[in-house]
Amino acid sequence: MPGSLRYRAIAVRVVAEACRLISRPELESDAAAPGYDLTHPFDSAVVSAFAEIFNNIAIHAYGRRDTGLPIDLALWIEPDGITIELRDQGSPFEIADVPTPSLDELHEGGMGIHIARSLLDRVEYEPGPPNLWRLYKRLAVEEARPSVVTR
Amino acid sequence: MSENFQVQHAADETRLLVRGMLDVNTAPGLAEIVDELIAERRPRVVVDLSALDIIDSSGVAVLVKLYKGVRGVGGQVQITGARDQPLAIFKLLRMDKVFAL
Predict the structure, then answer these.
(1) Which of chain A's residues have a Cβ under 8 Å away from the Cβ of B64?
(2) For residue A62, what are the domain limits?
(3) ipTM
(4) pLDDT tens for residues A49-99?
(5) B94: which residues sit within 8 A by CB, 6+ positions away?
(6) A35 vs B61: CB contact, 8 Å cut-off?
(7) Cross-chain residue pair A107–B61, CB shorter than 8 Å
(8) Do B57 and A111 touch (CB under 8 A)?
(9) Taking the domain B5-98, which CATH number applies?
């Protein structure tokens, strides 16, 4: 999809639906609530983190411009987790240089990568081009549907 | 005004209702409202998030701006109704204590 914030909502919806298939596969798609159903903690965590990374690419890698350059999005949907890859052709950066914000005070910025790192099991970034983000979240056993719980 | 936001002024209280998605695309619209509330020195602002489905760090930033700005001119801010994903984000950023959620 184009690497623009105009396409953010559709990307978020794709990820939200993928999460629902993992966390609540028993729900028929038609039975899902209209809008964003992020009542499940797995869905909430993955969508929150993904949205921050999408923002980061559109705002920083592509400088908020409609460059015509894409964000390539790939999802691996598995019964016990999700892997998401995002590739962009924008400006790379050094993720190790991103500071961890102090939560003792209120911030008006700089929280996006902290949110993603805190909510996922793995956040990897390889500078390019193409720059590659790889996000992974495991569905916690206690969150999984009964049929896949090992007893 | 965006359909995502609704402002109701009463004698001593301003209610700000935020609906749907408060994110990098919708936050600038709320920031304009926040600037007005701060400039008008509203004494008490109640932010109702019960209809808010999803928030990102840009949305959080505007709420922090509101909180700091209104208090900075002597007013009070109360944030109510946060649930699900927005509440999880506030807790992650340890803002649930500040906002008394």
Answers:
(1) 106-108
(2) 5-148
(3) 0.91
(4) 999 999 999 999 999 888 889 999 999 999 999 999 999 999 999 998 888
(5) A103
(6) no
(7) yes
(8) yes
(9) 3.30.750.24
